[in-house]
Design brief:
The chain is an alpha/beta fold and about 160 residues long. Helices cover about 40% and strands about 15% of the residues. The strands form 2 sheets. Strands 1-5-6-7 form a 4-stranded mixed beta sheet, sandwiched between helices. α5 crosses α6.
């Protein structure tokens, strides 16, 4: 279960994580207090996420890819460009995959399955994996509208 104490424990361990995927609901509000990702037991504010991602063990071995597949995790404003994704980049995560608007659950699942399958090939960059996952959705008649295949934005290291 996605609970904040477990996330703190896992990220705080000495073992490096190359990929962290947070699949939850998120809200980017008008202030940091109004911006959060929902865990099972409580909310993770934008400030808490920054603290988690800035933990001591991640300074020497940062997360290579953080996927935030909740709604609007790459939407920002003047206070926090690129929202949660921008906070993660500021905390030295190398790459973040976030969304620009509310996402469809089924289309997101299909996108993520294709994206991670593509990443298994060491010759495919993260940017290419996003492109191939988008193209896969475009082949599905139900997901041809840009609403389904284009909300995801890769920020940071695209390789």
């Amino acid at each position: 279960t996605f609970k904040l104490p477990r996330v703190r424990q896992e990220i705080g361990q000495a073992l490096p994580y190359n990929v962290v995927h947070l699949a939850s609901h998120g809200v980017f509000g008008s202030s940091s207090d109004d911006s959060f990702i929902m865990a099972h037991d409580q909310i993770i504010t934008i400030d808490e996420l920054e603290v988690l991602l800035s933990s001591e063990n991640l300074k020497n071995d940062p997360i290579e890819l953080l996927t935030l597949s909740a709604c609007q995790t790459a939407e920002g404003d003047d206070r926090s460009p690129l929202g949660f994704s921008g906070i993660a980049i500021r905390a030295k995560v190398r790459s973040v995959l976030g969304s620009l608007w509310s996402v469809d659950d089924d289309a997101t699942l299909a996108f993520m399955e294709s994206f991670y399958r593509q990443l298994q090939d060491p010759d495919i960059s993260k940017a290419r994996a996003v492109q191939l996952a988008q193209q896969q959705l475009l082949k599905n008649h139900d997901y041809q509208h840009p609403y389904f295949w284009s909300p995801f934005l890769l920020i940071g290291n695209w390789l």
